[in-house]
Structures are given as C-alpha cells and as structure tokens.
Write a structure and sequence with these properties.
The chain is mainly alpha-helical and 91 residues long. The protein contains three helices and no strands.
Amino acid sequence: MAELKDLFYMGIGTAILAKEKIEAETKELLEKGKLTKDQQKEFMDKAAARGREEEKALNDKLKDVVREVINEMGLATKEDIEELKKLIKDK
C-alpha cells in the first residue's frame, strides 16, 4: 500500500512541476510577443482541462487497483459489511 501512496504523491509532484513549467514557457512566449494573452489563456485552459481528464482517469485506475488488492486479500468491503448487518438484523 505504501507503493500506491508513493506513486500518488509522485504523480501530484509531476503535475505541479509540469504546470509550473507550462506557465513559465507561456509567459516567456507572451513576453517575446510570440503568443497573445488570449492564446495564452486558451492554452492554459486546454491544459487544465486535459489535466482534469487525466486526474479522473488516474483516480479511476487507482480505485480499480485498490479494489483488486482488496479482493485478492479477501478483505470485506463496505458493501459486504452492510449486507452482513442486514442479514443479522433480519434474523
């Protein structure tokens, strides 16, 4: 489980570094007159949207991996526990 946590933090760190690098590069292009303010905003908006899509995909993949680990370990899920509570209550 520690490996998943490390992977998660590494992903966050990489995303932050990429965002900072993109912002610096677009700012430099803006200052050199190779990019307009509107183009910079549009680029940053597209990059942010893509980042959100990637974050969702990563979260979905992480959830699948965690479910698989839980299943392989034979651990009870929240749904399993709720079902058992219901069975006990109904008896």
